[in-house]
UniProtKB/TrEMBL annotation:
The lineage of its organism: Bacteria, Pseudomonadati, Bacteroidota, Cytophagia, Cytophagales. InterPro entries: Methyltransf_25, SAM-dependent_MTases_sf. Residues 43-140 form the Methyltransferase domain. This is Methyltransferase domain-containing protein. The keyword Methyltransferase applies. It comes from Algoriphagus formosus.
Length: 181
């Protein structure tokens, strides 16, 4: 599936993708450089989409790092499985609110998310963020890209520390929120 077909898939599912375009290289770089991924044992990505952020994570993670990528769109999953034929990368075609079911009790060093929380029900949002907080290692971080600064208040309900940065080099411009407990 080419980029144009991926864009058609993106626009056909705006309620689940919540994006007008895929993440820019500048946004991906800002997101993956917020923490040091090289020494991580386990990283989770929520909302793999076209694999832009996935590629950024893979470029920054160490050779021992395992990456689980959650994506509910089966077409995106199929493309990512082709793109990331890597034994350390597992593409999971399931909702992010099922994260605990795939960890087998393991703790996660970092969770990177592009989920459109503005479009997700309160119950599912609560499940995703509660599970994310509970599965993070001490010193771990939940890193979220979003298009509204007001979402900081949502993340503060689950994480006591939320640091925000911003990039204009994305359409639309975006915030990166680093949440720690």
């Amino acid at each position: 599936m080419g980029k144009s077909n991926l864009l058609i898939e993106l626009y056909s599912n705006l309620s689940t993708t919540g994006a007008l375009t895929f993440s820019s290289k500048a946004l991906v770089k800002k997101m993956v450089t917020q923490v040091d991924l090289k020494d991580a044992n386990l990283i989770v990505e929520l909302g793999g989409g076209d694999g832009s952020i996935t590629q950024g994570i893979i470029n920054q993670m160490g050779p021992q790092t395992k990456l689980l990528v959650f994506e509910i769109n089966s077409s995106f999953c199929e493309e990512m499985r082709k793109q990331f034929d890597n034994p350390n990368v597992q593409i999971i075609n399931d909702s992010a609110d099922q994260i605990e079911n795939y960890l087998n009790g393991e703790k996660v060093d970092f969770i990177l998310s592009s989920l459109p929380f503005s479009f997700i029900s309160k119950e599912i949002t609560d499940s995703i963020l509660s599970q994310s907080r509970s599965v993070l290692n001490q010193g771990g971080a939940f890193i979220q890209i979003c298009y509204s600064y007001l979402l900081k208040n949502l993340f503060k309900k689950y994480f006591p520390e939320v640091n925000v940065s911003f990039t204009l080099k994305n359409l639309p411009p975006a915030f990166v929120m680093v949440c720690q407990s």
